[in-house]
Write a structure and sequence with these properties.
With 124 residues, the chain is mainly beta. The chain has strands at 2-7, 10-13, 18-26, 33-39, 46-52, 58-60, 68-73, 78-83, 92-99, 113-114, 118-123.
Length: 124
């Protein structure tokens, strides 16, 4: 089993930055990809960014590409989401997730483990 705990959420003004962290516990052999999803009130949960275990392959949705970066510290089993130039539409609960197979798709069912989420609020 893998447990995921997110941190770093908060409230910022538009144009500001936040850095989310997700620390995994358990066996790192249980997953090959970690990703970030978000869910705004009244909307479906959507994938935001993911990173493969080798750190070479990273994926982003169009709306955050160029503003968000994803990185990882394998030794600490932690993945980071650096969010810059934040917009009010980035407001959501952000969830960390991990999956055993694949990394390029945003299929929620493909992710085996989920964190509890950390809230991000961007005010205009």
């Amino acid at each position: 089993q893998v447990q995921l705990v997110e941190s770093g959420g908060g409230s910022v003004q538009a144009g500001g930055s936040l850095r989310l962290s997700c620390r995994a516990s358990g066996s790192s052999s249980q997953y090959n990809c970690m990703g970030w999803f978000r869910q705004a009130p009244g909307k479906e949960r959507e994938g935001v960014a993911s990173i493969y275990a080798d750190g070479e392959r990273r994926y982003f949705i169009d709306s955050v590409r160029g503003r968000f970066t994803i990185s990882q510290d394998n030794a600490k089993m932690t993945v980071f989401l650096e969010m810059n130039s934040l917009k009010p539409e980035d407001t959501a609960m952000y969830y960390c997730a991990a999956r055993r197979m694949g990394c390029a798709s945003w299929i929620r069912g493909a992710y085996n483990y989920w964190g509890q989420g950390t809230p991000v609020t961007v005010s205009s």
